[in-house]
Write a structure and sequence with these properties.
Strand content: under 5%
Structural class: mainly alpha
Radius of gyration: 20 Å
Shape: globular
Order of helices and strands: HHHHHHHHHHHHHHH
Helix content: 55-70%
Keywords: Oxidoreductase
Number of strands: 0
Low-confidence stretches: none
Largest sheet: none
InterPro entries: Questin_oxidase-like
Mean pLDDT: 88
GO molecular function: oxidoreductase activity
Distance between the termini: 37 Å
C-alpha cells in the first residue's frame, strides 16, 4: 500500500477514456515503484528530466524502465536530510513564505507537506495549500504553473496512481518554483471575455496567422518562447488572445476533450 513514506504502485490506474493500455506486468509496476522510491530517497527533484514520463503508460518493461532511468544518473543532484527546525517553522503561514522560490529548501518543503498529508490526507492538503483562496494558497497557485507545468504533471500522476508521497513531492516542487507567471495569469483571467466561445483550434490558428506574434518569437529563446518571446515582445495581443478561451464548471469535460483535440492537431 502506498503511504506518504512509501511509493507502491500496486495496480494500473483505471482507464480514464483518454488512453488505455494493456494490463502491465507485476514486475513492471514493482520496478517503477523501486525506481521512484530510489530517486526520491537519493536525489533532488530537479535535473533528471529526459522525457521519461510515459514509459510505464506505454507498456515499457522493467528492463526498459531501468535503462531509461540510468540514462542521466550522473547528472542527478543529491538530496539532503530536512532541517527539522525549519520544517516546524514552515507551520507558521508567515514564515512559510520566506522560503518560497528557492530550490535549496525543497527537502524541507517536502518534509513539511509529507507531514501535512500524513495528518490530513492528499485532498485536504491540496485544497488547503492550492485552492483555499487565502494569500498562501494564491501564492502557491501562481507557482504551480511555473517550471513548464511539471507541478501539475507531478500532482496528476500522484492522484492518478494514488501515491501520497508523490503528491508531497509535487507540492514541494511548487513551493520552490518562482511565481513569474502569476501576474500574467491574473491579467489573463481579468481579460477573459465572459461571453466568448472561442475554441482552442481557432485560437491556435489566430496565433499562427498573427505577424506580430510570429515576430515576437525567436529560435534563440529556446523553450522560453512564452516568457522571452510573447510576453516580452507582444504581451497585450498575447494576453487578449489567450483570454478569449474560458472554462466553466459545467463544460469541464468538453474543454478537456478540446485540449486533447488541439494537442493532437499541433502534434
Amino acid at each position: 500500500m502506498a503511504t506518504p513514506l512509501k511509493i507502491n504502485i500496486e495496480h494500473y490506474a483505471k482507464p480514464t477514456g483518454i488512453f488505455e493500455n494493456r494490463t502491465l506486468r507485476t514486475e513492471t509496476l514493482h520496478k517503477a515503484s523501486e525506481l521512484l522510491q530510489t530517486n526520491h530517497d537519493n536525489y533532488h527533484i530537479y535535473i533528471h528530466n529526459l522525457g521519461l514520463h510515459t514509459i510505464v503508460a506505454l507498456g515499457g518493461s522493467a528492463a526498459q524502465l531501468q535503462s531509461a532511468y540510468d540514462l542521466a544518473i550522473d547528472s542527478q543532484r543529491p538530496t539532503r536530510p530536512p532541517d527539522v527546525v525549519r520544517v516546524l517553522d514552515m507551520s507558521n503561514p508567515v514564515h512559510f513564505r520566506k522560503y518560497l522560490g528557492r530550490g535549496n529548501y525543497y527537502d524541507d518543503y517536502f518534509a513539511f507537506f509529507q507531514n501535512e498529508i500524513s495528518r490530513n490526507g492528499v485532498s485536504n492538503t491540496v485544497n488547503e495549500f492550492l485552492f483555499k483562496g487565502d494569500d498562501r494558497a494564491e501564492d502557491l497557485f501562481q507557482r504551480f504553473f511555473s517550471g513548464f507545468l511539471h507541478s501539475p504533471i507531478h500532482l496528476g500522476y500522484a492522484i492518478e496512481f494514488d501515491q501520497p508521497l508523490v503528491a508531497a513531492e509535487a507540492l514541494a516542487l511548487t513551493a520552490v518554483h518562482d511565481a513569474a507567471f502569476g501576474s500574467v495569469l491574473a491579467l489573463i483571467e481579468r481579460s477573459t471575455d465572459k461571453s466568448s466561445r472561442e475554441s482552442l483550434i481557432n485560437i491556435q490558428e489566430k496565433l499562427h496567422g498573427s505577424d506580430s506574434l510570429n515576430r515576437a518569437m525567436n529560435f534563440a529563446y529556446g523553450v522560453s518562447q512564452i516568457r522571452d518571446g510573447f510576453l516580452a515582445n507582444a504581451k497585450e495581443e498575447f494576453i487578449q488572445l489567450i483570454g478569449s478561451w474560458k472554462v466553466n464548471q459545467d463544460d469541464l469535460d468538453e474543454k478537456t476533450a478540446e485540449t486533447l483535440n488541439s494537442a493532437c492537431k499541433e502534434s
